[in-house]
Design goal:
Distance between the termini: 33 Å
Structural class: alpha/beta
Order of helices and strands: EEEEHEHHEHEEHEH
Strand order of the largest sheet: 1-9-8-7-6-4-5-3-2
CATH architecture: 3-Layer(aba) Sandwich
CATH class: Alpha Beta
CATH topology: Rossmann fold
Shape: globular
Number of domains: 1
Helix content: 25-40%
Strand content: 15-25%
CATH superfamily: Alpha/Beta hydrolase fold, catalytic domain
């Protein structure tokens, strides 16, 4: 097997300069993040580059562990290359560690959030970004990890007219034969999607079988959608999370570069 097994459907990856239309530099930019009020009691972590330019924005969807330091670091990395980034806090400030006890508590917590609640929260987050004077309201994308990967897939159908790009890292529960959380398959919503979507998986991820990759690819191709699926050898679930034992530095580095190419093309 080669460095990665890539299934592409007109993904449109490019190597043009990041945000060339508005002359944003590729070089790292300083940025300061803060917790903001998105709507009502809904809070989120928001960060943007230190620039007077109006910039594209990314919504960052958390894993089941909450808006922790890892998710904030993803937002910070996006800001350093020229994006504003917002991570809506579905847990109202609560976070969980990665040990077995915390994992079970996190699973119990996420079970209390259904797709209707997710859809409402995402809509509020999109409205928040659209109403900011420092964000390009017609250049908003989404990226999510694990539970957040499924949230990205869901968002790309429910809020299809608001997104320009979507990236889902090892999103569990998109098209399982039986979901452990009892959630419905998202494949019936595929025809509603508009934004190109990039999906990242580890070949050694025991929680997402290769057959699920195939079901997703078939549904997207049948619906004539623009997508790319990348499967990284020797990488397991959560290979991008650098604070966990599952972290795979080589796969994470390559996945991030592919992600940047994808976003710079579709949000530039």
């Amino acid at each position: 097997m080669k460095r990665r097994n890539l299934l592409m459907a007109s993904s449109g990856l490019a190597t043009t300069m990041l945000f060339a239309k508005t002359a944003h530099p590729v070089a790292a930019q300083t940025a300061i993040g803060e917790m903001v009020t998105i709507a009502g009691d809904l809070q989120g972590y928001y960060v943007r580059p230190r620039t007077r330019n109006i910039v594209p924005a990314m919504i960052v969807f958390m894993e089941i562990f909450g808006v922790n330091d890892y998710i904030k670091s993803v937002c910070d990395r996006l800001a350093q290359v020229g994006f504003a980034a917002l991570a809506p806090d579905f847990y109202n400030g609560q976070t969980f560690g990665y040990n077995d006890s915390d994992r079970q508590n996190a699973i119990a917590r996420v079970r209390s959030i259904d797709d209707a609640m997710i859809t409402e929260t995402v809509g509020q987050s999109i409205d928040y970004l659209s109403q900011r004077g420092d964000v390009l309201s017609d250049a908003i994308g989404a990226i999510g990890f694990c539970w957040g990967g499924r949230t990205t897939f869901l968002t790309n159908s429910v809020h299809a007219d608001k997104l320009k790009a979507a990236v889902a890292y090892y999103g569990g529960g998109i098209a399982p034969t039986e979901d452990r959380f009892g959630r419905p398959s998202l494949l019936p919503s595929v025809p509603e999607m508009q934004a190109p979507i990039l999906l990242m998986y580890g070949a050694e991820d025991a929680s997402i079988a290769p057959e699920e990759h195939a079901r997703i690819a078939e549904a997207l191709s049948t619906a004539n959608k623009r997508y790319a699926i990348n499967v990284f050898p020797d990488a397991g679930h959560a290979f991008f999370s650098d604070g966990r034992d599952s972290y795979n530095a080589a796969a994470a580095e390559e996945a991030w570069q592919i992600t940047m190419n994808f976003l710079q093309y579709h949000l530039g």
